[in-house]
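Q: Here's a chain of 147 amino acids. Please give me its 3D structure as tokens.
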Amino acid sequence: MRGRVWRYAPLVLWMCLIFFASTGELSASNTSRIVRPLLLWLFPDISEARIEWAHFLIRKAGHFTEYAILALLAARALSSSLRDALRRRWFYVSLLLIIVYALSDEFHQSFVPSRTASIYDSLIDIAGGFTSLVWFALRRRRREARG
């Protein structure tokens, strides 16, 4: 039981964090309260257009990164599962989890007044997760080849 908690708890906690990030707390208007002053401090002569562009890129990078981390946690949990079927198919099950969670995350955001749902954000999420899964698989294969 202890091993199962150690294996799956980080994954579940990260999914809860992503759910929280989908609320109004991390909406664009709220994150701009942090990003805008930081950019103005770093680059005092930055234009409003560049601030908006940088804010946009930071938010999209956040999507990619949060799902890359989710994928690593899923791969870690599933590739070491006690269930043979999960352990053998960890890549596909992890990818399915990423896809379903990314789509449900955007669906959830469609009900939050200060958020907007976007299939493009889901695609960024899935790309982040897929990239991370490929990296994990390559790293694992290299480690197994060494013995």
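Q: Can you summarize the key feature?
A: DSSP finds six helices and no strands in the chain.
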